[in-house]
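Table S2 (continued). Query chain:
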Amino acid sequence: MQNANRSIAKMGKKLQNVGAALSVGVTAPLTAFAAVSLKNWDAQVKAIAQVEQGLLTTGNAVGFTSEQLQKMASDLQNTSLFGDEDILQNATAQLLTFTNIAGEQFARTQQAALDLSTRLGGDLKSASIQLGKALNDPVANLSALSRSGIQFTEAQKATINSLVKTNRLAEAQTIIL
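Corresponding output:
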């Protein structure tokens, strides 16, 4: 009977060890996943707040709602290396500060910023600001794109300048994009 009790005690101890290992093996990854999810949710909430503040301070000059911009970012994440929270914070929110970029040009500029950042290996925020400056005031800031390796012919520059001078900024932006 004593041998049976010892066997049962050994078996009980082994089961406790297996239970502890399973608990750590299952609980630890779930806890880590929850922590990452919470961090991503926090980043998303902050990015949306930045976008909404940008819409508020510019009087919604861009012509899109927060929900529409969030949907754009979600769609863009499917075709880029960036997550939607990164797009919202480092492209959308940055571009909202340039009130001369609106509507279709705004959507195209976000895509161009993603492409520029990926192609040149730079960060998304810098690419967005650089494009935003050039599109917001092409006459004064077109040369900044040239310094980054984006070249325009003399004829393109002359056309862009002429379009801006005749209040056809959207057409000038189309050439730049």
